[in-house]
Design brief:
By secondary structure, this protein is an alpha/beta fold. 27% of the residues lie in helices and 27% in strands. Among the domains are: 350-416, no CATH class; 421-511, GMP Synthetase, Chain A, domain 3 (2-Layer Sandwich), CATH 3.30.300. Strands 2-1-11-10-12-13-14-15-16 form a 9-stranded mixed sheet, sandwiched between helices. The longest helix is centred in the first third of the chain and has 17 residues, at 42-58. It is globular, with a radius of gyration of 23 Å. One of its GO terms (molecular function) is phosphopantetheine binding. This is D-alanine--poly(Phosphoribitol) ligase.
Length: 524
């Protein structure tokens, strides 16, 4: 029997702006957002969003227009994101800490025609826009201004699901340019509503929002909160470097749900004293973004006791596609899985011939959370493909690049990548983007960036050949890349080790320690 392709219609019943509007009607007097000493109820937040959305429409913003939110993480940034979505724009949160040149690349890649700013980010935004003329900032509402980019070429219209708005999250790209991941309202809303139910989120919960708004973990903080009428409490960015302060903040702000990368949990275990002062209000812990080291995970489970600990997995292109409530008695000696598919998604493993396999292969995802495609030079490029899953149904699927296998119980085990992409503190880093920046420098003849193993495991080193110093290399990268992508160390070599095929031996570079210092020259 010949299997027919599954219909590719998408869920359209939920919009992200609808989640907030419904919460404002249902829980008008409940706290919705906390930023330091400032508190917004749902009615107040909805009113601020409505005013700003109206001002955007008054400035000519139309459905499908692409807007960047260039505001430090704050209540203003949250209001700007919601307002852009309510105005039916495609909204892209941007990090004001990024180097100006990288922000400029994002504007061009995403085809962003406007930026929302505040006074503290206005000058940097102007530099990112560039051009001969200093762009004018139009005051809108609540200290938020609108700045038009100087892109003259019209961008290609987006497909139907994004013509009434969408969400863009930028990730590292192998070509040296960040990629804009375009998600529809339905993609994000499907995850947000499901995750709120899965974690038992309710109107009395207080979510500790520690993720950057440019990071896909933040979609839970913003939109799952709205779906459940919960309160989002913004954690000051500066606390992340001080795990003990994070633990104290969780206690002081009565945080009940935390969604964070494993490295934050590990820091709280090893340097934050959470074992001695577990936040009394914390009832649910969720992690994603990178594998959790087995021993610290076992320790966290013992501390959590009967509190649920959830593992969410998925690349930005699918937000979250598998989930697992980690068994409370799991130990580091047991195999770790990333759980099973989120309802509405289908996940399977495919071999090199493109056939489903029971052995190791590449994880593919189809279904409600799979993105629309990448924004490249303002146009949409769809990397998905039609594949026949193990059940015989042909589906539009995203090949994740992650290697894994399916267990006999229907869960998935993750083995790593089929390419040079790595995860660091939850952020996806494409080695090729770092190397591209290095190779564009006239003083560098060759470059190889590796994730170290052995004594320096967890670190990223950049090896170069050329007429530059180690300090020059790191200085160059800091002007081009966000700090989370800058390697821990740069090493200048006279020659790279080669493998049997005559190519740079990356395995040797990954395993080797620092080069031995040259012996001092004899003096007479």
């Amino acid at each position: 029997m010949t299997a027919t392709p599954e219909p590719t219609t998408r869920h359209t019943e939920e919009r992200l702006d609808g989640l907030l509007a419904r919460a404002a009607r249902t829980y008008p007097d409940r706290p919705a957002l906390v930023d330091g000493d400032r508190v917004w109820t749902y009615a107040e937040l909805d009113d601020a969003v409505g005013r700003l959305a109206a001002r955007l429409a008054g400035q000519g913003v139309r459905p499908g227009d692409r807007i960047g939110v260039f505001i430090p993480k704050s209540a203003e940034a949250v209001i700007a994101i919601h307002a852009g979505l309510r105005a039916k724009a495609v909204v892209a949160p941007l990090d004001v800490r990024n180097p100006v040149v990288r922000t400029g690349r994002m504007l061009r890649q995403g085809g962003l025609t406007r930026l929302l700013t505040v006074a503290s980010s206005e000058n940097i935004a102007r530099k990112a826009v560039g051009g001969d003329e200093v762009p004018e900032v139009h005051d809108l509402d609540g200290g938020i201004g609108l700045l038009r980019t100087q892109e003259q070429a019209p961008v290609e219209p987006l497909p139907e699901p994004a013509r009434d708005g969408g969400y863009v999250l930028f990730t590292s790209g192998s070509t040296g340019v960040p990629k804009g991941v375009l998600l529809s309202h339905a993609n994000v809303a499907h995850f947000a509503v499901w995750a709120a139910v899965e974690t038992g989120l309710g109107p009395t919960d207080r979510i500790g929002s520690q993720a950057a708004l440019t990071f896909d973990l933040s979609t839970y903080d913003l939109f799952s909160a709205a779906a459940a009428g919960a309160c989002t409490v913004l954690m000051p960015e500066r606390l992340k470097a001080f795990p003990a302060d994070v633990v104290n903040w969780l206690t002081e702000h009565r945080i009940s749900v935390l969604y964070a990368v494993p490295s934050l949990y590990v820091n709280m275990l090893e340097r934050g004293g959470i074992a001695d002062a577990f936040p009394s209000g914390l009832r649910t812990l969720v992690y994603a973004g990178e594998p959790f080291p087995p021993r610290p995970l076992e320790t966290l489970l013992r501390l959590a006791g009967d509190r649920p600990v959830h593992n969410f997995y998925g690349p930005t292109e699918t937000n979250v596609c598998t989930f697992l409530r980690v068994p409370p008695k799991w130990t580091a000696e047991q195999e770790a899985t990333i759980g099973s598919a989120v309802p509405g998604d289908v996940v399977d493993v495919f071999d090199e011939t493109g056939e489903p396999t029971a052995d190791r292969g590449e994880i593919h995802v189809a279904g409600a959370t799979v993105f629309l495609g990448y924004l490249v030079d303002g146009a949409l490029h769809d990397p998905t493909r039609q594949v026949r899953f193990a059940d015989g149904v042909v589906r539009r699927a995203y090949p994740t690049g992650d290697l894994g296998r399916r267990t006999s119980g229907g869960e998935f085990v993750l083995f790593g990548r089929k390419d040079s992409q790595i995860k660091r503190h939850g952020y996806r880093i494409d080695i090729g983007e770092i190397e591209s920046v290095l190779l564009d420098s006239p003083g560098i003849r060759a470059a190889a960036v590796v994730a170290k193993t052995g004594a320096h495991e967890g670190e990223v080193w950049a090896y170069t050949q050329g007429t530059v110093s180690e300090r020059d290399v790191l200085g160059l990268l800091r002007t081009q890349l966000p700090l989370y992508m800058v390697p821990d160390r740069a090493v200048v070599l006279s020659a790279f080790p080669l493998n049997a095929r005559g190519k740079t031996d990356r395995l040797t570079l990954a395993a080797e320690g620092p080069p031995e210092p040259s012996p001092p020259k004899e003096t007479r």
